[in-house]
Amino acid sequence: MSAVDFPKTPSFSLAGKRALVAGASSGIGLAAAAALAEHGAEVTLAARRADRLDALVAAMANKGWTAAALSLDVSDVEATERAVAARGPFDILLNSAGLARHSKSVDTTIADFDAVMGINVRGAYFLTRAVAKGLMAAGRPGSLINISSQMGHVGGPDRAVYCASKFAVEGFTKAMAIEFGPARIRVNTICPTFILTDLSRPSFEDPEKRAWILDAIKLGRPGEVEDIMGAVIYLASDAASLVTGTALLVDGGWTAA
To answer: How many domains is the chain built from?
Structure first.
C-alpha cells in the first residue's frame, strides 16, 4: 500500500507571538492571559489596577512564562492609542475589559448608559483599531478578539444597555473583519454565557435570576473561566486562520433555544 499524505493539523502554538490582554487583572481576562502565555505567547497584561498586574506578572514569571504589565483604562481612548503605539505591534489582542450595570430600561440613568458604552463599545472599538493600525503599519497579520456575550445575540431581563453594547461589538467586529481582511488581520468575538466571576456574582446571588440562568443553559451548569480558554487559543492561533468576522458562542446552548 502506498503512503498516504495526510493533512497536518494547524499549530495551536503561539511561540513568537506578542499578545495584549485588556482587562487582564481578573476573571476571563486573567484566564485568557494564562492560556496565551502557556501556549508560548509573550503577554502584556493591561488593566487599571497596576499593583495587581505587577503581582500577576511576577507569578507568571515564576511559571516560566513571559509577561509584562501595562496600566491602561480603555475608556481613555487617547491614552490607549498612545500606549498601544508605544508597546506594539501586537500579533494578538484579547479584550476582556467590560462593564455591566443592569436595570430595567425605564430606570436606566444617563450616567450608567454612558459608562457601559464608554468601555464596552467606545473603548473596545478604538482599542481594536489601535492594534490593527499597528499591525498594518508593520505589515504583519494578526488576530483581534473581543470578549462579547451571548447577550450580543439575544435579549435578557434588566439588560437593555448591556445587550445594546454587545450587539454593537458584534456589528463593528463584522465591519472591521471585512476592512482588515486584505491585511490578513482577523477580527472575531467570543460570546460566553454566564461565567462565574466577580462581574456575574450579583446575578447568581439572586435566587430568581439564578434559576433563570440555570434553566436557560442547556448543559445545566454555569460557565467557568476555563471554558473560555480553549476558544481563546483557537482564535488566536493558526488553527483559525480562515475564521474572521464571526462570533464563537460558548454558551452551553443558551442561544440555540
So the answer is: 1
Smallest CA-to-CA distance from 171 within 160, 163, 161 is with 163
Residue 185 contacts residue 136 (beta carbons within 8 Å): yes
Span 34-59, pLDDT tens digits: 999 999 999 999 999 888 999 999 99
Give yes or no: 162 in active site: yes
5, part of any domain: no
Active-site residue among 125, 162, 172, 180? 162
Residue 116 domain flag: yes
Question: Which strands make up the sheet holding 142-147, listed edge to edge?
Answer: 67-71, 42-47, 18-22, 92-95, 142-147, 185-192, 247-250
**pTM for this predicted structure:** 0.94
Report whether 30 contacts 57 (CB < 8 A).
no
Structural domain range at position 243? 18-250
Q: Is residue 181 part of a domain?
A: yes
Q: How many CA atoms lie within 13 A of 115 on its CB side?
A: 9
Spatial neighbors of 242 by CB under 8 A, at least 6 apart, are none
